[in-house]
């Protein structure tokens, strides 16, 4: 995704909301913390911190927002910041046209020295970079990487803590280390790449312990280094022999233990998974199995409650055994570690893949009893049992479970249920389903979708009367049959929003609803509503001002 193509690649609703935020000047304190790494604050229901990472051509390679929105798309706050960055770049593109290298080459020695001295005086990072370069002219080793990162952390910390607005200063030399690593040749420097990224992960983990990381930049730096290590191990240039494997395991071991001890990130799991790639390239199963066992037996693992982490490591051991294709050893492992749900799931999945459906049902029912006090796990076992029933063609059991899953709001199973139940039985099943879904927040989206698909508009209207805010997105389904009622509910919703509002942002939000009201019920109805609001709230000057902006 590129800054120039946001409108095409972001869902229209999110893009338009982000555009509104941008146009209302809700983007504040926009700054470029490091080359192509931007940060801003966005005003909304509350203030949100947004970070965006770009390539030189404006491609968005990473973004983070402190809002709760979860999707593969940018959120509206990220869209607003991207639009602000694009505007900034367009207004300041004259500097981009200057060929700095050419200009520097044209300067005399005295002029270059003057520029360099000015940079050293005004930019501490430049001075630090030159000092380190003079100490170690051949490049960067682990000690140097650790030292320069720690210096930038020292500059950024105040009384042992790093505030959110100084996180970029703490990470200043982290980016320098990563830029250096990015310039290394994987064919010749694979081990160096791994070692330097391990230092970055370790030092950034320490930063997390003393910093307000609401911007997400610290975690982003850790994840970038983890990905670089994974890439280096996946594309290892040399031959993988026992000596190389032993050397890498010895290198990773203290860093995996460090990740477990600090318990701040998923670095320990990620590093283990990355090195286990090597088991596919050679017969190292016993070595890797033993290494995982060594980690599990470490004091860092045993001194704390790491049930989930230990379970994940046991799954990795199982994967190693499965790659050996020794089914007897795999079955023995299943029996020994049956207490772990993830191991039981792996056993069920293996049986499913083999078409052993009776075995799947038995194993799932046993696990449902074992995990009876854990509803989420019980639900997972039912899902796996459902797959076995499908494999066996057991329609009655499929219908029962489809009904149960549909009640949880899962449309996929509602469709299965509707296709399996015969036409005579369907009305009765549907009534029972809707009666239970009506008061279940989990199934609400599916419930409304069914009402729309089944043309049960009376019930849809009743829902909107109880939940007036829903009219904003449900009115298209009701307007033709209930124009008066839609007007009435929409108006009540707007009055509620205006009555609760106490500042300009809230008035602006209410006026956005009036704009959608206008699109639904027409300009005349909207004009009448606006006049009513002006009459009802003559002393709310901010509201009157925002109402006057509605076109």
Model description:
It comes from Planococcus halotolerans. Keywords: Metal-binding, Zinc, Zinc-finger. The chain is built from 31 helices and 4 strands. The protein has a 4-stranded antiparallel beta sheet with strand order 1-2-3-4, with helices on one face. Strand 1 and strand 2 (37-43) form a beta hairpin. Among the domains are: 4-91, no CATH class; 476-546. Helix 6 (109-122) packs across helix 7 (124-135), helix 8 (142-156) runs antiparallel to helix 10 (172-182) and helix 28 (483-500) runs antiparallel to helix 29 (504-521). With 551 residues, it is mostly helical. It is flat and about 80 Å long.
Write the layout of secondary structure elements.
Layout: H1 6-9, H2 12-23, E1 27-34, E2 37-43, E3 47-54, E4 60-65, H3 76-91, H4 93-96, H5 100-106, H6 109-122, H7 124-135, H8 142-156, H9 167-170, H10 172-182, H11 186-210, H12 217-234, H13 242-262, H14 267-275, H15 285-296, H16 299-302, H17 307-324, H18 327-336, H19 341-353, H20 357-370, H21 375-392, H22 395-407, H23 411-420, H24 426-437, H25 444-453, H26 457-466, H27 471-478, H28 483-500, H29 504-521, H30 523-536, H31 541-548
Antiparallel strand pairs: 1-2, 2-3, 3-4
